[in-house]
Amino acid sequence: MDPSRDNKSIEEPESEIIADVPDIPLSDLVEKMVYDALVWSSLDGLVDAWQWWGLGMMDKTSLGSLEGDGEGLRCEGGYICRKAPAGSPSPAAHTPAIAEFSALHRFSLSLHTCLRRLRFSFSAPSRALSRTPPHHPIPLPPSPSCPLRVVEMDSMDFKVGELLKEVQLHDSEIETLDQAVSAVIDAINSVPEQLVSADAASKFIADLGVPTEKVGFTFKRPEFIQVGGSYSIKSVARPDINVDLLVRMPKECFHEKDYLNHRYHAKRLLYLRVIEKSLKSCPAIRKISWSSFQNEARKPVLVVSPVLKIAELPDLFIRIIPTAISLFSISKLSFSRNNVRACTQATPKYNCSILEDMFLEENSEFVKKSFCEWKSLKEALVSLKVWARNRCSMYAHDCLNGYLLSIILSYLTTESGGNLIKKSMNVMQIFRVTLKFIATSNVMDKGFTLQPRGQYNIAEDMNQILQSFDVVFLDASCCFNLSFRVTKMAFAELQDEASWTLSCIDKCSGGGFEEIFMTKVDFAAKFDSCLRINLKGNPKICSSDFCMDDECWRKCEKDVHSLLQRGLSDRAKLVRVLWRSTPSDWKVENGFSYFGNEPMLVGILVSSQEKCFRVVDIGPSPENKEEAMKFRKFWGEKSELRRFKDGTIAESTVWECETWERHLIIKRICEYLISKHLLLTKEDVAHTVDQLDFCLQLGGKDPVSFSGALLGAFELLSKRLRLLEEIPLKVSSVQPLDSAFRHTSVFPPQPHPLAYEKGLEKKPPKSATTCIQSLDVMIQLEGSGNWPLDPVAIQKTKSAFLLKIGESLQEHWGMLCIATEDEVNVLMSGYSFCLRIMHDRGLNMLRNQGGNDKIRSQLSIDKELFFRSQHSSMINGLHGRYPTYGPVVRLAKRWVSAHLFSSFLAEEAIELIVAYLFLKPFPFHAPCSRITGFLRFLRLLSYYNWTYSPLIIDINEDFTPKDEKEINDYFISCRKSNEENAQSIDSAMFLAAPYDKASEAWTKFSPNRTVLKRIASYARSSADLLSNLILQGADGPYTWECLLRTPLNNYDAVAVLHHNKLSNPHHLLFPAEVNCGKHIICGKASKDFHPYMSLRGRVQSLDDAKNKLMVNFDPTLCFLADLKREFPNTFSVWYDYLGGDVIGFTWEKKDSRKRGRNEEEEHSMEPTDALKKVGEVGKGLVKSVYLLKVPKL
């Protein structure tokens, strides 16, 4: 706040100000001061909170009658105030105080964060949201001793109320907009009478198939012009602000048989062409363009942009939509009639296209009457629009739009709708009732009508109408189907989203406000599998008859849906073909040639992993000849007659593949069906499934295929350990700790030819890797009271046990064992296992141990083993529930490593973050494909509010509300401590798991705020690129590989390593390319190490080869350890632990704290000298070092 600011310059509300915050909006105070959203009604708590923040002294007596009286408090213009008594003067000076308006857990912080995010969609953020939020967490005040609610307010209702303030138009904007609309209406009414011919739109009329001599008429001014749509009922929602003008065309412009063969549509366009020509000279209009009504190409509309600009609404436009009341006989347009003579069947959609214009004004009046003087109903419509727009594929012209939403709400207020919506309901109650109606309605089976109950007078049988349309929702006349464009697949998606949203409200914290209203459910992130089908030039599209009953491209979309839905059967929960929109640059002069040329997008939502990965589809029995014939005709050469184990003989299709390739089955089914039935080649179909598999494979094969051998080797080891008799205490438990055992290792180890027991050696290949990865295994011994009490003695005892275990394994089974003080490495069955012992007494002693660092270091080994064992058990169980979890984690780890974040983000932390996506997927379903899961991982990294929120991963639903409160309380105390201690090195990422509520295991010290900000920035960029690749494909330089190429120019310096000196050079994705910067040194490769050894001629001397085998050796890690010792505080080191050949350096900024002598010398070293020393430290491994930019120290 600016203390010099004159309080008189602020407009004061007409009430007594209890809390005067002249320069800081309430929402900013909420973000800074409130975590649990407690309302301070205790005067002691109020004063303490204010003074705790250092905002000055407060005289408690000045608050007088505030205590115990909360009814008069309210929020007005950013102030907390109480209505002043009648006749009382406005105070000259105001006493500062703090108040808040909800008590639900953390609602205020999440609200402010959400509204800040939503702000970027709006052109005019409110004063309360226009300030830049603080870039660092603010310490939060302690709860007062006696917190009471001053105002009772439901959290969800409050948030929605604030959201509505942001998305609805302000009175001043409405006034300006009304002026623009009036100017356009005046311009239309001034259009003179004139003759119109087909020449005004010859290409369009020709594509409709209408003879030019049938469309001439005399233009007459509209009979009536009125505002329709959401603007007429004050339910417009940002950012899509438009006004619909319903222009009634005179009957004199038409003949009685113009309903036939698209003559009406041709004249409708020509009527608009005359208006367009006149409006071009109107000074009130800045721009005129064309679009289509509800994406129907044969019904264009004029889009007018007024000259009168509204700063907050830069994209405002006015649509001119023709209407035609009572133009034709209703009986001539019944659903069973054929009015396009080129068709051989009824044309219900064509007929509805004309009926829509005839009943548009009448249905708009019905909506207006329903919404009149009903504020909560209008606000519910706005909230439903926000909800629907966030679900991009659902808010489409074949599914849901604002007009249909208003019709549904109006219907639910009537007797025919069961009066489900009542005047007494608030916004969220109406919201829930509407979603429940959508989710549970059987409109596809029975249909609905707006006609009051008991007055049904449907001219045609409802069953017959249901055969003409996927969804039937008749208006009050029962002659027009309001939902004639809604497709079966779109309505299925709508019902699924409505049902899932209701679950979200019940299951998510805070009523799921952020998940429902703030999170974008876009096409790329929603569907498990996405296809792009290029139909340009296909005979199904390039037809001479663009429009029959429906546009030809709409029929093609429907055919593709039917084809894939039938082929995928129960594998797919939902197959969604997205309606292609009117091209943005379309003009009526172009006719229909532009339509249908864009690739068709298809989304597939998988029903379950089990069904998705099924290899065999069983069809009908050959005894059912008719069905068997249909099956063989549909599947063609893929169909075969098979006998199954139970003796059943049936037609079937088999999709043979290896286990690790089963995620490709859906892709192969789709490609086969499209090729067979649509005559398209594989090049015409891009199916997003396996585009990132290249980064997980070695030699064209996924190493996860060796997991079976690995698990078998572990089971054998476990059995042998339990059989040992020579050790004083028997082995009671053997648990694998390495990520390879829980299916989350990027590169699970393959059997090594030199890691077998004596006598069991395999025939050696020509060569083998010199290094072998060791897999950690934890051992627990049976209980005994004879363990020593001294921590050092405990560690020595463990070492003795490990030595004896190694000797016994070597003696009994011929295993090669390598023992150290803390572990023993055992080579057997092609693998290396690193055995460690955990003892419970070490854990208990660690909790009570003082400051002896050496002892604590020894005891912390037990704690680390405990964390790892608990983590492994939980993650292994999670992978059992979600088979896609493992591949998603592997992609996430590959991305983290490829961008050199390995030293900052532990792999266990990555596993927990991905686990959260499966356990708390709202507003999505849990991902069933690796690319979809990977995209959501990137978005979670980039958008999660790490500063103010812990990420709670409740894998087995173990957490109670009390546990979550403890986690949040501890999180707050940590953040407060960080702010108070400027030298704190605590992590900026807080991951709470059942075994680690305090986030000590994996993110206690890393990543810090700077690193996390960098990670989030990279994740955001990668997520945007991935979304574009899914929806549009690789374009120019932006390919799938770009997701894993890190920009080296973001580092101060880089060191490039010799590729042939890495421990696993075959893991390298892309060789480093440095094309800028200053070349500091160039180093030669060492001759002492090579990643591969030749086994030729060693068949008789495998023991000699085994002696050269290096267990757990990685030259890069050794180099990094040396750098850490040599430069502990000079720069941060960034590397790829999976086998990258480049290391990045960013210099640490100097601070003012006191340093030791060695530290001063280190910081005083010039960057060039430091980099030369880096080359010396990495001699033999470092190929070259570059200084890319001089660091700012």
Automatic annotation (TrEMBL):
Superkingdom classification of source: Eukaryota
Bilayer-crossing regions: none
Stored Pfam families: Nrap (PF03813), Nrap_D2 (PF17403), Nrap_D3 (PF17404), Nrap_D4 (PF17405), Nrap_D5 (PF17406), Nrap_D6 (PF17407)
Listed GO MF terms: RNA binding
Domain Nrap protein positions: 243-370, 377-520, 524-678, 707-879, 882-1031, 1048-1185
Entries under InterPro entries matching the protein: NOL6/Upt22 (IPR005554), Nrap_D1 (IPR035082), Nrap_D2 (IPR035367), Nrap_D3 (IPR035368), Nrap_D4 (IPR035369), Nrap_D5 (IPR035370), Nrap_D6 (IPR035371)
Annotated localization: Nucleus, Nucleolus
A GO cellular component annotation in the UniProt record: CURI complex
Protein's GO biological process: rRNA processing; tRNA export from nucleus
Keywords: Nucleus, RNA-binding
Family listed: Belongs to the NRAP family.
Name by which UniProt lists this protein: Nucleolar protein 6 isoform X1
Organism: Canna indica
Lineage of the organism: Eukaryota, Viridiplantae, Streptophyta, Embryophyta, Tracheophyta
